[in-house]
Amino acid sequence: MQARAVLAVAAHPDDEVLMAGATLARHAAEGARVDILFVADGGSARFAAPDAPGAAEAIAAREEAARAAARILGARPPRFLRFPDNRLDSAALLDIVKAIEAVVAESEPETVYTHFEGDLNIDHAIVGRAVRTACRPTPGRGVRRLYAGETLSASEWGGGPRFRPTRFVGCDAAGALATKIAALRAYGDEIPPAPHPRSLEAVEALARSRGAEAGLDHAEAFEIIREIDA
Ligand SMILES: [Zn+2]
Q: Ligand 1 centroid to 2 CA: how many Å?
């Protein structure tokens, strides 16, 4: 694992746990500083507009759940860019890139996790693209490892190339995987019952399946976008 500073950039609260919750917990347990950044507000899509009655309360509740999940993972309090939920395609990509770049410059991560660009969800695809741009390896930048993770109910439903993992991070059922499940539970009613793809049963089944691909009991899987050993 070997990283002093790690950043996960997710579109919505709960994506960070689904994508990399066990891996972030392992980083934190090994002493890394773990930061989490959310790009979209994670609540306003259920309302006619981001400023509709009730939207602000829904967004605040989601952010409170995200703070609780971050504590469980051992991460620092998350940051929120609050671009409009499921409407990232209404924002200029450059604005999203610049906002992410500012957090990367401040957080100075060596290792970054973000979305697989082939996800069905438009916000995930845009965040994946924006993070790839924000972490481009020009001289003086410190991001050495960039990975794309899969999100149940988004990665398997995209119509393009399938998610093809090239890095596997083992997670013990009683250790990092249990921490991931506990962090997911912090999101409360966002976790639907089986056989929904974001049910706890599906999360455990995916961890079991990815583990089996790598000769491990359970694992999270990532596509390697870039690794640099200077
Ligand atoms: Zn999402």
A: 27
